[in-house]
Amino acid sequence: MSLRQMEYFLTVVEESSFTRASELLHVTQSALSHQIKALEKSVGGALLERLTRGVRLTPMGRAFLPHAELAVRSAAQAQRAARAAAGAEGGELHVAALHGVAVGVLPEVFARWRRIHPEVALVLHEYATTDALEEHVERGTADLAVGPPPVNWPGPAVTVGEEEIVLVVPFDDRLAGRTSVTLAELADRTWVRCAMEPVVEGREFLDWACARAGFTPRTAVRTEHTSTAVRMAAAGVGIGIAPSHVVRGAVGEDCVILRVDPRWRRPLTVFSRVGLTGAAAAFVDLLRVSQPNG
Predict the structure, then answer these.
(1) Which distant-in-sequence residues (6+ apart) come within 8 Å of 15 by Cβ?
(2) When comparing pLDDT for 192 and 38, which is higher?
(3) Which pTM value belongs to this model?
């Protein structure tokens, strides 16, 4: 079994066609078919079912697929890490992040990286939820991830700073002259909710927090992205909640930010499947010095 055979297998699965896969791989169909048969022989059974129009995975193929993806991505990751560590032209560092972190934290860090390490390109992978972020990093999609601390993560995880979760209201809101507010004072207000809201003890964060304050939040609108929720709140649709860096990235100074008393904070973490060395370690250092309490 070779890495090339697994790459061929993944391409056939992706394209659902030997013909299209052979064109993409720049090999003949007979050569591609030979390599797939050799791979099937090494694993002890058929991985693909040849149909009149296309192919589909066999049960053995479905079991083999995620491991092949991980092997191919890990090989690419190893090559990127080696080239980046050596400062080689064409080296890449793949960074995964939650959408909010990508909007609010990474632009400045990426800009500084380009000035200091112009020979190492950055590739950003954005995800809506922490579950998706952790899943894709575990599968080898990126060299490292930036987000809240992962739960039961088997690899290295480094705290580089912290996020403060704040409230967002428009300038004409009755609370606009305040700097902080207790959650209990907001029992009569409506809220802008976001699909990216984290889950605490099996409940969405705002439901969990408001329940502790003695009320159930009333939702005015739900959005897909945090930056959209911030803009809705700034326009007066309802009170929004978001990390403070997302507010700056989404609307700048075009709204009022209120701190919750007691303040809502959570660590900002970099985590990876393997040790953070070379370019990855340099990125962590740069991220740490750019963050509050890093």
Answers:
(1) 21, 24
(2) 192
(3) 0.67
